[in-house]
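In line with agreed milestones, the collection of sequences with tokenised folds has grown. A representative record is reproduced below.
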Amino acid sequence: MTAPAPAPARPAAASVRPRRLRGLAWLLVRQHRAALILCAAVTVLGSAWMLYQRAAVLDTLHSAGWPARSPDSLAPEAVNRVREDLDSFGRNLGFLPLLLGVFLGAPLLAADREQGTARLVTTQSVPRGRWLRWKLCFALALAVLTTGILGLLYGWWWRAAGPLAPVDWLSGALFDAGGPVLAATALFTTSLGIAVGVVARRATTAMTVTFLLSGAALFVGDVYKGDLGTPRRLAFPLGSPEPPALEQVVQVDQWVGTASGRLYGWGTCVQDASPEGCRAARGIVNSVWDYFDADQMAGMQAGAAGVLLGLSAVLVGSVLWWTRRSTL
């Protein structure tokens, strides 16, 4: 009787590399990998560009004689180039929160509800509340990290230019793109997009409505951001040169006034047949400026960031409240 032939050895199973991400973290990265890649690319390329531009700005200024020479004695071409580069890149950064709100926030939940992914995920072993928290934290953290890094580097680049940076920081790009305002704005627009997406249920509709609402909100904020601080006032003799303290300030309003402090509009007596006699009759002897100084910018930026963070918290809370009481 012959012994049975031994069974052929099975090939060793190919070793499977364990995933570093599991559960909802893996799902979110797989589902939103395009947004992750784009945000990472924008952050890396934007950071590299600002590092290069900062070095180029310093080389240009040093070759022109700064800081040994005063800013007024430098070549106007060099000064204008520094200011135009800072302002143009800052304005481009200002569009980033709007794009994040439209392309990251708006479709975050709207696309899942439209395609049925939300119902599929929440009918598995994942509770609805946990899934929502993961989705919201993922989108908001991605928006804040992207804009936070770029905003810090932009502020670093701007401070390197010193007194040669654009003077009108309030209406220019410096206020919106430097410091905490850029990240806070991105947090607000992304939260707004998520809230609109929950109500709209359609990704395309949510993106369109988010674009319109975010644009309107940013416009209103730009109009009223001067109310975040109290302008300072300085009076000096009418007709005399402006004091050195007014060289690097943002002018808010201009008046003419009497020695007792009474103010008149700047055009008072200008159209009169005898402007000097008209001013003498009214006792007008001073030119008066209302202005914001550079040391007020940080406090006003903190105030703007606080308002945006508060609005974002309200929007996120509304999203959690709404989704817990409605069907996905």
